[in-house]
Write a structure and sequence with these properties.
Layout (H helix, E strand, L loop, with lengths): L8 H5 L2 E2 L2 E6 L2 E4 L9 H5 L9 H6 L7
Antiparallel strand pairs: 1-2, 2-3
Length: 67
């Protein structure tokens, strides 16, 4: 299991640019700083810094179970 810690939204909001971005999906915050999204960074940009929950957008795109 990956190392987990409590993160505040204040802290997460600081991570909002290419190369340093975190997104929130439900109750979990993911560090995607080193993830290269196939659609490019702009696909995730509106969720970077946990501005809003990315879960619904992820589900609406019809991602595979592997994603």
């Amino acid at each position: 299991m990956p190392n987990q810690k409590d993160i505040t939204l204040q802290e997460a909001k600081l991570h909002n640019k290419k190369g340093d971005y975190w997104i929130r999906m439900g109750d979990t915050i993911y560090d995607l700083s080193e993830f290269d999204h196939p659609g490019g960074f702009l696909v995730l940009h509106e969720y970077a810094g946990c501005k809003k929950d990315g879960w619904q957008a992820f589900e609406d795109q019809g991602h595979t179970k592997k994603a």
